[in-house]
Every structure is written in structure tokens, then in C-alpha cells.
């Protein structure tokens, strides 16, 4: 049986490129909760620096309430947790905002797509709500790409 982890890095990179072309995003990564933790990322962004520990904390199913108090670090950038519906049926998203940056904060959305997670950082000035909606809309295209790829095997 073909599993989602067998999808080539090229397919994942195409998904990243698709997001960056929206003009709303400045960085994106596709991660999973098992090795290889980082499946694809935008090479000119910061999310390629996501660590295994950061990914495990972000995706842990237990102890999620402490994330509201402690925040989350992504690629060395501290983020505030705004809304956590990552493991809520029918939503599967999480909204964050970077903090402590001299140039201002940025919205970050994480969405679960089957067994992988897409992390998207919005352009400066992009609010979390519109970013979340765009990510949710674009996940349909990614699911289609996954299913098309799976159909070829």
C-alpha cells in the first residue's frame, strides 16, 4: 500500500510553490510527525530551519493547553497560539502569530492534510483570518495532487 510519506519531495515542493504564488504567503513548509520530519520547505524562507523538537511540540496531541501559555517556537521564532483546532474534526487548523520581531508580527497557519501538516507564514500585513481561509481553500488543491499522485502507483 502506498503511503503519503512515499510522495516525492518534488510533489511537496510544487505544493509549497503553489502557496507562495498566492501573494499572501512569504514562507511555507510541509511537515510530518515522524521521520523525515520536514518533507519540503521554501528554501529562501526560515521554516526550512524547523527542528525535530519544534515539530514534535507543535504536533503533539497531549498537553496542547500548555501551548496557549508557553507559546510555540517555529524555526527559532517565538509564536503566540491564537486558536488551536488542529485536531478538531472538519477544521484541522491552528492559528499563530509571531512575536518579538522588530519589523512587526506575522500570521502563521498550520493545517492538517491527511497525515502531513502544512505550515504557512503570511506576508507582513496579512491578517490571520484571510490567511487561514486561503490555506483552507488551497488544501483542496493539495489533496487533489496527493490523490492524483497515489493513483499513478
UniProtKB/TrEMBL annotation:
Single GO cellular component term: cytoskeleton
Principal localisation: cytoplasm
Location(s) in or outside the cell: Cytoplasm, Cytoskeleton
Protein name per Swiss-Prot or TrEMBL: Profilin
Encoding gene per record: Pfn2_1
GO biological process, one term: actin cytoskeleton organization
Any one GO molecular function term: actin binding
Coiled coil: none
Entry similarity comment: Belongs to the profilin family.
Entry keyword set: Actin-binding, Cytoplasm, Cytoskeleton
InterPro entries: PFN, PFN_euk, PFN_sf, Profilin1/2/3_vertebrate
